[in-house]
Amino acid sequence: MAKLRQYPAIDIAKYIGAMLVVAIHTFPFEDISPSFNLFFISTICRLAVPFFFVCSSFFLFRKINKTKNQAEDGNALVMEWLKRLGTLYLVWTVIYLPYTIWNYSQAGFSLMSLLGWIRDFFLNGSYYHLWFLPALMLGMVIVWTIYRKKGFVYTLEVSLVLYLVGYLINIYAPIWESLPGVYVVYGFFTKTLVTARDGIFFAPIFVCLGAAAAKLRRPNLKSCALGFAISFICLILEVTLYSALGVLTDKSCMFLSLIPSLYFLMNMLLQIRVPNQPMYKSMRQESTLIYVSHILFARLLLLMLPQVHLVVYLATLACSQIFASTIIRLKPKYPWLHWLM
After folding, report:
1. What dihedral do alpha carbons 304, 309, 313, 315 form, nearest 10°?
2. CA-based nearest residue to 125, from 43, 24, 117, 314
3. Which end of the chain has a smaller Cβ tally under 10 Å, C or N?
4. Rounded to an integer, what distance in angstroms lies between the CA atom of residue 143 and that of residue 152?
5. How would you label 132-149 residue by residue, b for 16+ Cβ within 10 Å and e otherwise?
6. Who has greater pLDDT, 30 or 180?
7. Is 219 a domain residue?
8. How confident is the model at residue 3, as a pLDDT?
9. From CA 302, how far away is CA 15, in angstroms rounded?
10. Which of 2-6, 33-37, 192-196, 207-211 has the lowest average pLDDT?
């Protein structure tokens, strides 16, 4: 297989995305203005996780597109990819077990809580911020299965329908909870699947966008920049509308404008030329480590400094960065550390 091109602009964006994910979990502006904090998290921060999905899908489908037999070789590449992500998920599940036990000891152990954790392990994450790993894996399985049998267009259509269903569940949750009769159905959904922000409803469309970036012809850079600017303005207006309607919460994340925003953002970054340097590979690795490790620090810092969220955010970033840099620096000497990233 030919040497694959590097994309430093993507590496930089992934690092920024990791910083935004930390913001989601530490509420940096909560003490200054809760409404602004919610608006900040609901707009720019909500680009971060689906961007990781799009990137991961793009790089996998780029490899698949370069194989001679996409059906057989693609299966092998997808299985290898799933194994790598699954291993990363299992390793960090074990690392977070003390925190998981801490949570359940506070809430009280029960058979139902154990069954709930088993369900969450497969659908919603063994610890709350790890949800993106099982979601991404399940989303990829859904997309790849349909893509092999029905082609890209049909896969995209199914993914859009799933996202629209998830959008209705996620965004209008406060309405469903208040409607007689409907709240029973909604309550059953939350008891079984918990959330629509998962590998079934949320992930497939962004996996499709990554596949599209790898497979289809891209709009030119100027068109992508304009498209992203318009889409992001639409995202701001969409969030403002939901806030005015009284349905915007910190759980709201399946915004319609995210789809064009991520499409144009990804295609724009793929065309931005940045001279390749070793530091960008480090940023790529650091972004993953910051994402998976930051709750180790944020959880304790929020307990110690509950009234100074901006300080908690900056301290969490600093601790996560030091942790990531240390792991990367020690990895050549201790190869087993690669399981953390």
Report:
1. -40
2. 117
3. N
4. 9
5. bbbbbbbbbbbbbebbee
6. 30
7. yes
8. 60
9. 23
10. 2-6
pLDDT in tens, 61-79: 999 988 877 777 889 999 9
In Å, how far are 86, 90, 115, 135 from 93, measured between CA atoms?
A: 10, 5, 16, 15
Q: Is residue 177 situated within a structural domain?
A: yes
Structure tokens at 283: 């940023």
Do 47 and 265 contact (CB within 8 A), yes or no?
A: yes
Query: For residue 1, is pLDDT > 60?
Result: no
For the chain, how many structural domains are there in total? 1
Burial of 58 (0-12, 13-18, 19+ CB in 10 A): buried
CA 56 to chain centre: 10
* Host domain of residue 125: 43-276
Query: What are the tokens at 199?
Result: 């590998």
Q: d(Cα 285, Cα 114) in Å, to the nearest integer?
A: 33
Asked whether the CA dihedral 188, 191, 192, 198 is positive or negative, the reply is: positive
CB-based contacts of 34, cutoff 8 Å, min separation 6: none
Classify residue 311 as left (phi > 0), alpha (psi -120 to 50) or beta: alpha
* Number of neighbours of residue 84 by Cβ within 10 angstroms: 11
3-state helix, strand, coil in the chain (%, to 5): 75, 0, 25
Cα separation, 304 vs 299, in Å, equals 9
User: What pLDDT, on a 0 to 100 scale, did the predictor assign at position 67?
Assistant: 81
The answer to the question of residue 152 being in a domain is: yes
Dist. CA 330–CA 327, nearest whole Å? 5
* pLDDT for res 106: 79
Dist. CA 306–CA 298, nearest whole Å:
11
